[in-house]
Design brief:
about 425 residues, Porin, 16-stranded antiparallel beta barrel, three-stranded mixed beta sheet, 2 helices, DUF3570, signal
Length: about 425
């Protein structure tokens, strides 16, 4: 939401984009036949872990008959070290790289990180929206992204209907995505043991290949969204959404392992994880925007639950404070918490029965996060705008009730993550 003048904006137009954004669909925001562009550079950096740089250019063409074309190109470059799922140990650990080419050593007491993590992703999104009859707006679009070992393609559509002198809008949409993953080194067989060695060693290639079940696999995702947007008065608007998402196919992370430990907590083996091949999510989302005399409050809450037994809560609050010269500042706070998947285990004990599914990926474990930051924007002539955003992100993985044993009590099993997010945007 951008304030380029001192008048109160059309809050319904500003909020209507939120419903469509969940499915990648566009919204109607202008009747002038012109192009508008947004460009952004963002850098995300975790301390001693992953860093990412993202460049975005988005263009919107609005035609005289209220038809809208949206195009967006995104390029991401990621590098750094990513947790491989194994637990820290009081002694050094050696792992084979996911490709099978080479090894890496993790120092005693440190969370095992795979330092070969790097990738470049290119994503192209297109969307077409237009009025249909007197009170309907229809939107269709698609998305394609490609990185080194992953491809994703999707299509979507949305239909919105205005009521009550356009103060109430009902919307329904859907999207369908098809993804293919083809990691270097192939897909590991679930529960097979990581072969520690090097391709130069005799017999290593044969042993490594025995832990592979193929070179690639795929998954499909269907998303449905139903929403209502209601103008309360000239200062306030509210939106409520329900979304249903179902994914099936290869949902396992081929780069993650689980430490198999003995009664003393010492890792004796590393087994490849296995996740269910289906996942269904239900999400409930509410958002309100209120225009005070001194600024605009944008607050939202989302609850998500799925059949992996992950429940999450997200609260996101922004408050834009405009100044007479067209400048503005926008403080931002986001708080997120989630419960663990029913098959999440930080490690596997050799005295327990082998489960059907298991993953030690902290991203599906118990965790809390918060993001706090501020954005500063200023006009640069001819209706253009330059903005700077700086945020701090903190993540705290938590114990989901599994008791540490032996030497695991002497190491950090749930390492916290800190990151800095910096972004520059230019709209013209």
């Amino acid at each position: 939401m951008q304030l380029k003048n001192k008048t109160k904006p059309n809050l319904k137009v500003l909020l209507s984009t939120a419903t469509c954004a969940l499915l990648g669909t566009a919204s109607q925001a202008s009747t002038e036949e012109s192009w508008e562009f947004d460009t952004a550079i963002m850098h995300y950096a975790e301390i001693d872990r992953v860093s990412a740089t993202e460049a975005i250019i988005a263009g919107k063409k609005t035609f005289a008959n209220d038809e809208v074309l949206n195009l967006k190109l995104t390029v991401d470059a990621l590098t750094g070290a990513s947790p491989n799922g194994a637990t820290a140990q009081p002694t050094a650990q050696t792992f084979t790289r996911p490709s099978g080419n080479g090894q890496y050593v993790v120092n005693a007491g440190e969370t095992p990180l795979d330092d070969t993590f790097h990738d470049t992703r290119v994503q192209l999104t297109g969307q077409w929206s237009q009025p249909l009859l007197s009170d309907y707006v229809v939107s269709v679009g698609g998305n394609f992204s490609k990185e080194y070992d992953y491809m994703s393609a999707s299509i979507n559509g949305n239909l919105a209907r205005d009521f009550n002198q356009k103060n109430t809008t009902l919307s329904a949409g859907m999207s369908y995505a098809y993804d293919v993953i083809e990691p270097e080194g192939g897909l590991p067989t679930p529960f097979s043991s990581m072969v520690i060695g090097d391709s130069n060693e005799s017999g290593f290639d044969e042993a490594f290949n025995h832990t592979r079940m193929g070179s690639d696999d795929s998954k499909t995702t269907l998303d449905l969204l139903f929403g209502v947007t209601q103008v309360i008065n000239r200062n306030m608007i509210v939106q409520l959404n329900y979304s249903y998402s179902t994914a099936s196919g290869y949902l396992t992370d081929p780069f993650k392992v689980v430490s198999a430990i003995n009664a003393s907590g010492v890792a004796e083996d590393y087994i490849y994880e296995n996740r269910p091949d289906e996942r269904t999510k239900h999400s409930f989302f509410g958002q309100t925007k209120y225009h005070f005399d001194t600024g605009i409050l944008d607050a939202s809450y989302r609850f998500m639950t799925d059949d992996w037994e992950i429940d999450s809560h997200t609260v996101d609050v922004m408050y834009r404070i405009p100044f007479d010269n067209g400048h503005y500042i926008e403080p931002h706070l986001r708080v997120y918490t989630q419960s663990a998947a029913d098959f999440y285990q930080p490690f596997f004990s050799d005295d327990q029965i082998m489960p059907q599914y298991i993953s030690s990926d902290y991203r599906i474990g118990d965790l809390d996060t918060y993001t706090v930051g501020i954005k500063y924007g200023l006009p640069v002539g001819n209706g253009n705008e330059l903005a700077f955003r700086l945020e701090y992100y903190h993540q705290t993985p938590k114990n989901n009730g599994i008791e540490a044993v032996g030497v695991l009590n002497d190491v950090e099993l749930y390492e916290q993550v800190d990151a800095i997010i910096a972004q520059v945007t230019y709209s013209f």
